[in-house]
Design goal:
heterodimer; A: eight-stranded mixed beta sheet; 15 helices; elongated; B: 475 residues; eleven-stranded mixed beta sheet; six-stranded mixed beta sheet; globular
């Protein structure tokens, strides 16, 4: 079908078709993720594409500007005033699903699903994610585990990941120390998320020792030693900063010990507000492939501490080579209408031996390098123009396996 | 007539409604001639023969949409509606050239005086968890709720009359007013100013980049003033507490219409022996008094009634079959339905086209519409009915344009079809339009909640009986 720019047969802006070549790479990456998650004991879940708007406004998980960029609309029950959304995030829905189903905690849950967020430019508005939510994850251990699922996935795909670590508690503690009210704290936190630690240093309430510490934090990144060195600069009791740096040092040391490349980057701030502890990015080169961290799972009390991490599939696929199509179907040509049942039987026999085959017309199949002709009383396999009569199924399968 | 050959036609959108008289004065000062755009005038489209400029009069809410669509090059519109539209559609291709002198209005969030709040103070977000917010400006209300980080709020978009809702039918309202004193005059408590703006000169971005608009821009330049519309940051007071109200369920609540329908409804009620003190053809009380035991009455927009009844805010309402049908197409499972067809205010709804359109029935028109090499543009104040019309008639490729009034001016320039109602057809004929087949006949009706929200179902049943008995017999 010919499609022009003004045609109704065009995709909606910001949406992407996953065509065969891309789907092959997608499945390869997905398989690597599922296997890695499975090895660490994660069970797969899938949540609905549509959730209630209230789930996200109650959770307080999204900043106001993010909340305003979700796809929300009135569905068939919209007369109640409750809008629904195309899920903008998977962490909140997975926590919701686990709580609603009464899944026992600790629980290791993984998912492969898409999220939808408005983007003002031509960037994708639908993003696929491979994600993990470890509900009730123990401190540090849980953080390390989710990071390692991501790095194992990438290593399986031949990539060399680097883990960048920070801690949401650093920002919270620093902001709490200088903000006079919860309003001011929220505004300052948003400013740092959007503009970096420079926004924090602009506050006149920051004292000299804290300025020294934040200056050192902003100086770059390093290994576990960097976290330890920063800990030495923490003034007074540290107001939570010391605890956060200790946690970072612990996790960085553990990862370094098993030869995972680590960068402690305290100035790194992730854009979701629900993080409460260690946050991580997994990068390949300059590309951020995965990100996540520790949060308090939204839902009814008692609150559950959890770790989550999601791989951005678009970013991951951009690092992977194209995958060859290894499943071209062998045309099986019924030479007469009466030969159709035999042709179908031949195709099914080949399927049982792991070979792809499908009935086809003589004209279209003639260009194929390999095909099978079936008449009511004979079967001929044609390989590179050479014709071979085959008497038994085993003979046909053997010849095709040889070609494959 | 001046020589206009080779000159590109410039199309300008002008407001009707509250701003009309002010804009007429501005055009006069700018020496811009829009013939027939006069106080009380009914002209929807006019041309300045000398310059070839086309002027089209719209409801102010429709102007940003028409500019963004590229149907018009320049427009004068309310900055409140421009802001509302920009929040909802941040990518719309509109350039705000500047503010124009004249009155300024404000958008405020307000509550009932017995909400326990103080003027100018918003409580902490958690205190407002789950609040109901009603507004004619849903995008601004949404921006407010998100910015204030209110958990689990519910938004009730309204056609109007928001000031009538607190405290029993909503917790907060977002309203456009001249200032906080107007909110106080409405018996409400002003909490926070969200936005302030007046009139703006706006352009379609592509037209500004590629068309010669210099003549009109020069004329309008003298009207521009140094004033920026602005949104305001929200401050909160963590110590403030919020007192909610709920509707009484020990009474039955009846919603009666304001606006155009208010001209006929008091007579229909009187025929059933129902007279409410403060509800007459010309009264403006929001809460008329009922002497029927257990019956509470309130005046709201008829367009909002099906949702209010479905929500259980009211047990019954007097609205139109058109409005109910529009609502039930969108929300077929909503617990609201017609109890009595009052057989008053009859009019018919159907597809309206230009008189020169070469078809007189939908069947004749379909091949013409489906052969267009572009979407068939359907404008309507009833977008769900318009969509249903397109679906039922297998129109292949359509765009639906929800509009807010001044509808007869849309066809043929801005829309191919107008889904519109008419009683006698005279207004259509006056605008050189014709209706093809009628697909809905609408009359006033009593709607009720199918799952009672009141304990006084006896009062609702009594109302239904009285009104049903008063309906004139069909011939």
């Amino acid at each position: 079908m010919q499609v022009t720019e003004s045609s109704p047969f065009t995709r909606s802006r910001g949406m992407r078709d996953l065509l065969p070549e891309r789907m092959r790479v997608f499945r390869r990456a997905e398989d690597a993720f599922r296997q890695a998650a499975g090895r660490w004991g994660y069970d797969e879940v899938r949540t609905p594409t549509i959730e209630t708007f209230s789930l996200f406004s109650w959770a307080g998980a999204l900043r106001p500007d993010m909340l305003q960029r979700i796809y929300s609309f009135l569905d068939w029950d919209g007369w109640s005033g409750e809008r629904v959304v195309l899920r903008p995030d998977s962490t909140v829905p997975v926590s919701r699903a686990a709580g609603e189903a009464g899944i026992d905690v600790p629980a290791r849950l993984s998912y492969v699903q898409n999220v939808f967020r408005f983007s003002p430019d031509d960037a994708d508005r639908e993003e696929w994610q491979f994600g993990l939510e470890y509900l009730g994850a123990p401190d540090d251990l849980g953080d390390v585990e989710t990071i390692l699922v991501a790095t194992e996935t990438l290593e399986t795909l031949g990539l060399r990941p680097v883990v960048r670590l920070s801690h949401a508690g650093l920002l919270q503690a620093l902001v709490a120390a200088v903000a006079g009210s919860t309003d001011e704290a929220a505004r300052l936190r948003t400013a740092v998320i959007e503009q970096g630690l420079g926004a924090f240093l602009a506050s006149p309430a920051v004292d000299a020792p804290t300025r020294t510490l934040v200056g050192a934090m902003s100086s770059g990144d390093g290994g576990s030693a960097f976290a330890r060195n920063l800990g030495a600069l923490v003034p007074g009791d540290g107001n939570g900063v010391r605890t956060a740096l200790n946690s970072l040092e612990q996790i960085a040391s553990a990862l370094e010990a098993i030869d995972v490349r680590v960068e402690v980057a305290p100035a790194m701030v992730l854009d979701f507000e629900y993080y409460t502890g260690v946050v991580a990015q997994v990068v390949v080169g300059d590309a951020v492939i995965a990100s996540g961290g520790r949060y308090t799972a939204p839902g009814e009390p008692p609150s559950v501490s959890a770790c989550g991490l999601a791989i951005d599939v678009t970013a991951l696929l951009a690092q992977m080579p194209a995958a060859r199509n290894e499943r071209t179907a062998v045309p099986v040509i019924p030479l007469t209408p009466e030969a159709l049942p035999r042709a179908l039987e031949v195709a099914r026999t080949l399927h049982r031996h792991g070979l792809s085959a499908a009935p086809d017309g003589a004209g279209r199949a003639a260009a194929a390098p390999v095909y099978v002709e079936v008449s009511p009383d004979s079967t001929v396999v044609v390989i590179g123009g050479d014709r071979h009569d085959v008497q038994a199924t085993e003979d046909l399968v053997a010849r095709l396996l040889q070609v494959k | 007539m001046a020589h206009t050959k080779d000159r590109q036609t410039v199309k300008v959108a002008l407001p009707t409604g509250d701003w009309r008289n002010h804009v007429i004065g501005l055009l006069d000062r700018a020496a811009v001639n829009a013939p027939g755009y006069e106080p009380g005038g009914r002209v929807l489209r006019t041309i300045d023969e000398e310059t070839g400029t086309v002027f089209r009069v719209f409801r102010e809410r429709d102007i940003p949409v028409q500019l963004a669509l590229g149907n018009y090059d320049l427009g004068i519109c309310s900055e409140v509606y421009l802001e509302e539209s920009s929040i909802r559609f941040p990518l719309q291709a509109i350039t705000r050239i500047g503010s124009i002198e004249g009155g300024v209005s404000e958008v405020w969030v307000a509550a009932a005086p017995d909400s326990g709040l103080r003027e100018g103070v918003l409580p902490a977000p958690a205190e407002l968890a789950g609040v109901r917010i009603a507004s004619q400006f849903p995008a601004l209300a949404e921006w407010f709720a998100a910015s204030a980080r209110i958990p689990g709020y519910r938004l009730l978009p309204l056609a109007g009359s928001a000031d009538a809702y607190p405290p029993e039918d909503t917790d907060l309202v977002v309203v456009e007013v001249a200032g906080p004193e107007e909110i106080r005059a409405q018996g409400l408590l002003p909490l926070a100013c969200l936005f302030r703006g007046g009139l703006a000169l706006v352009a379609n971005s592509a037209a500004l980049a590629r068309h010669d608009l210099s003549g009109l821009l020069s004329s309008f330049r003298g009207l521009l003033v140094d004033r920026e519309p602005r949104r305001f940051p929200l401050g909160t007071d963590a110590s403030a507490t919020f007192q909610r109200s709920a509707r009484r369920t020990d009474v039955a609540r009846l919603a009666v219409p304001d606006g155009h329908a208010q001209r006929h409804t008091p007579a229909a009620l009187a025929d059933a022996g129902l007279v409410f003190d403060g509800y007459s053809e010309k009264s403006d009380s929001r809460r008329p008094l009922s002497d029927v035991d257990g019956l509470e009455v309130k005046v709201v927009r008829p367009q909002d009634m099906p949702q209010l009844v479905a929500l259980g805010a009211f047990d019954a309402g007097i609205t139109g079959i058109d409005v109910l049908t529009e609502f039930l197409i969108r929300f077929p499972a909503a617990p609201v339905g017609m109890a009595v067809d009052l057989r008053r205010n009859w009019y018919r709804i159907g597809p309206v086209v230009d008189q020169a359109f070469p078809a007189d029935t939908v069947a004749e028109a379909l091949p013409i519409w489906n052969a267009l090499d572009r979407p068939v543009r359907i404008a309507s104040e009833f977008p769900a009915l318009a969509e249903q019309f397109a679906r039922d008639n297998h129109l292949h490729y359509t765009t639906i344009m929800p509009i807010n009034g001044a509808s007869e001016g849309f066809v043929p320039e801005d829309a191919d079809i107008l889904i519109e109602g008419t009683e006698t057809g005279s207004s259509l004929r006056a605008n050189h339009l014709k209706m093809l087949d009628t697909f809905i006949e609408s009359t006033a009706c009593l709607i009720v909640r199918t799952e009672p929200a009141t304990t006084r179902t006896d009062v609702v049943d009594w109302l239904v009986e009285r009104l049903a008995a008063s309906v004139p017999a069909t011939e």
